[in-house]
What we know:
The structure holds two protein chains of two kinds.
Chain A: H1 2-50, H2 68-75, H3 77-110, H4 115-127, H5 130-140, H6 147-154, H7 169-194, H8 198-206, H9 212-223, H10 225-240, H11 244-249, H12 261-271, H13 275-302
Helix pairs in contact in A: 1-13, 3-7, 3-10, 4-7, 7-10, 10-13, 12-13
Chain B: H1 5-32, H2 37-42, H3 54-64, H4 67-98, H5 104-116, H6 119-132, H7 139-143, H8 150-161, H9 165-173, H10 178-189, H11 191-207, H12 210-215, H13 224-235, H14 240-260, H15 262-275
Helix pairs in contact in B: 3-14, 4-8, 4-11, 5-8, 9-10, 11-15, 13-14
Amino acid sequence: MSSIALAGNVSSVAAFHRRSEDRTAWLLAAPAIVLLLLFVLLPVAAVIFLGFTDFELGYGKFRLVGFENYAHLITDRTFRKSLWNTSVYTAIVAPVSIILGLGVALLIEGEPRARGFFRTVYFLPVASLIVAMATVWQYLFHPTIGPINELLALVGIPGPNWLGASNTVLYSLSIIGVWQSVGFNMVLFLAGLTAIPRELYAAAHVDGAKSALDRFFLVTWPMLGPTTLFVVTISITNAVKVFETVKMLTDGGPNKASEVLLFTIYQEGFVYLRVGYASAMTVVFLAILVVLMLLQYRVLDRRVHYT
Amino acid sequence: MTSLPAGRIIRFALLSLGALMILAPYIFMISTAGKTQSDIFTSSLSLIPEHFYFAENFAKALAKVPMATLLWNGVIVCGLIFFFQVLVAIPCAYAMAKLKFRAARLMMVLVMLGLLVPIHATALPLYVAFDRMSLLNSYTSLVAPFTISVFAIFMFLQFFRAMPDDLIHAARLDGMSELGIVARVIVPNAWPAVTAFAIFSVVAHWNDLYWPLIVVSKQAYATPPLGLMYFRAAEAGDDYGALMAATMIITLPLVVAFLFAQKRFVEGITMTGLKG
C-alpha cells in the first residue's frame, strides 16, 4: 500500500520535473523561436503572398492579381534569359569546380611535402573578399591593357573582349566562379579523404587493385560518396546564387547576356521597386532551392551509409 | 612508397601550376597597386613596377575612400551579428539537445526549413518592413535579419548532443540554474564549435554584398564590399593603380586573419560545411 503511494508520489514528482524542464526549455528557445518567426517564416509567407499582388513600393494601394505575375513570368524575355544564363553558369561552374576540387585534394593528399602550403594557396580565394577580387579579375580580363590578353598576344592569339562581349561574358564570369570555389570544394574533399581508413587501401591492394586508378574506383570513390553528394549540392546552390561578380562587373550586360536570377530579382524589386512581380520571381528561386534539397534527400535515402 | 619519382614530379608540377593560377590575381593586384597610370597602360606583364608608385596609389585610395569608416562598419556589423547569433542559438540548441523539450521535434523541422531559406528569399518583405519603420541606412537593418542563424542552432545542436550528460547532472546537483549551466558549463566547453562558427559567420557577412546593397545607400553605413563598389563607380574603373590599392586594403584584414589562424579557418569551414 505504502509502496504504491510512494511510486505515485515519485511519478508525480517526475512529472513535475518534466513539466518544469519543458518550461525552461521553452524559455531558453523563446528568443530563437521569435526571431525565426520574424525574420524567416513571416517573410517567406509574405513573399508568397506578395507574389499574388501588384504591390509596388511607393504606391499605397495594391490588389490581388492571382497568378497574373506568374503568367507574365513565363513570357518575360528577361526572366527567361536570366533563368537560362543561371543554368549555363551553374552547368559550368559546379562540375568544373567539383572535379578540380577533387583533383587537387587527391594530389595534395598524396603529396607529403608542401601539403600545408598548397592547401593555404588553394583556399585563399575562399577567405578573400569576392567583391574586391572581382575588380582584380576585371583588370586581368581588360581587353586592351589586361595581362591575359597581352599574354595571348605574345603567342599570337587575338584575345576576346572577355567581360564586354555578349558571347564570352558568361564564360568569363564562370572562370571567376571556378577560381573562387575550387578551394572550398578541395577542403571538403580533403576532410572526406582523411576519414577513409588506411586499411581499406591495404585490403584493396591484397585484393588485386594494383594501380592507383583501381584503388580510386574501388575504395576512394565509393567511400567519398556522402562527401561528394554534399559538395555537389552546395556547389549547385552556390552557383545558382551568383550575384556579386555580376553586380560588380557587368550589371547583367552586355545586352542582358549575363543577367542571372538573383540579379534580375534585385533589379525588379529594389531598383524598379516592383515588389509584387519580384516576389513571384523569388518564389521561383525558392522552388529551385527546395527541388535541389529534395533531390539531395532522395539520393541520400538510396545511398548506403558507410559510417 | 612504390610510386615512381616521375609520378611525383608530375604531381608536384600540376599542383604548382594550379597554385600559380590561383595566385595570379593576387600577384597582379600587388604589382598593379605599385604602378603609375602610364606603366599600367604600357607594360601590364612586367610584374615589377618601373617607378614605385605604391605610396601615391595608397594615398589616393585612402583619400577617396573613407577606409577607416568602412573597416569599422565591417567590424561592428560582423561583430554584432556574431554576438547575437551565438546569444540566441546556444540556449536554444541546449534546450533541444539536453532538456526534455516537447517542442524539440517541431523546432528541428523549423531549423531544417530555415536552413533552406537564404536572405535573398526574405529580402523583399524585410526591405518593405524596414522602409516602413524608416530603419534603412542603420546598423539595425544591417544586423537584425541575421541575428537568428538556424545554421548556428544546427551546428551547436550536433556539438551538444556529443557532450556527456554527467557534466550537466553534476552542475544541477550543485544547485546551478539552467541558465547558469548554459553560461558556465556549456559555453566554455563549446569553445571549438564557437570558434568554428565565428569564422564561418564572419567570412559570410564580411563578404556579403546583397543585403547591404539593399538597405544602405549612404557612405556612413557602407560595409567594405559596398564601399569598394562606390569607389569603383566614382573612379569609373579606369584608375587601376588606386583601385588595386583600395582592393588590397580591403582584402587584407580577412586574408591576414586567415594566414594566422589557418587551421581554425579550414576547421571552421569544414565543420560548418560538412554538417550543413
